[in-house]
Fold this protein.
Amino acid sequence: ARQSEPEHNEAYRFVPALHRSIAPLVRSRPGVIQPMIIGRSVERRPIWAFRIRRAGEAVHTKVLVFAGIHALEWITSETAVEFIQDTVHQPPRGVEVVVVPLLNPDGRERAQADRLAGENRYRRANARGVDLNRDFAVNTEAKAIWKAIIPAYYGRSQTPLSQPESQALDALLAAEQFDVAISLHAFGGFFYTPWSGLWKRPADWSELHRLGTVMSAAQGSHAYKVRQLARWGFFFRAHGSEIDHIYGRYGTLAYLIEITRSGVTPFRPRSMREYFQWYNPPNPERHTLRTVRALRSLVHTLDWEARAAAIADSSPTK
């Protein structure tokens, strides 16, 4: 139903404009950035990815960054596109980066139509009404007592990997065998790690926390905290999440970054009623740049550390 009319905000681009911002890079730097379609949505929209690497350099580490799982979280796609531009101009020497700016194009299309029509609708799912953030195959069973007390927190899709969007991501993960994967969301201001469906610490918690801290430190003041997602609150679990699937099935170090601490402010009461503003602050620039700094620090740290390890291994005193 029609509710309060959203404010027109030119700070956030519609999907064609996002693509137009990437196109010149593809034309001018074909040896550095390569576009590819990794799958299609329920309504047959292409799901684009962009492979970025320094031409002529051997690859020792592979990183995936993907965004736009939830229809209203536009700041995630803005950040992904800014990261593409940043990485193309400063590609790390031995790290190949794959970026998927929009995993849920059907949901985004509906959210865009709402904005154009002045409709204030809550959008999260894909065209079939499935939350892709709960459509994966690891830690799907809720075992905590809280499921009976607050069941809304424990919903998931009936069949894991039931949607073409989540299947496309899974196929990409299987084919590429990434070392690190980052899922961009909004809002909250955290670097979340697995497990999201279990209270226990993951086996790689020390390394997950260390690299999360690398990203946090790069943000400067008011940086996001590193936390295991299931420990966001004692009662909270997220079953069938993408980060548990990525880490549990493929052994890839996985993070879910909650960009911003919301666009809601008591000084703008209207923002509390408008769903779009919950996830997308009026001015996204400082939030996208803060996250890009974190991602840039991660990929360059992975490069430096791998090269330092290679030098140490080749030392005659080794």
Summary: Strands lie at 33-40, 46-52, 61-66, 95-100, 180-186, 190-193, 225-228, 253-259.
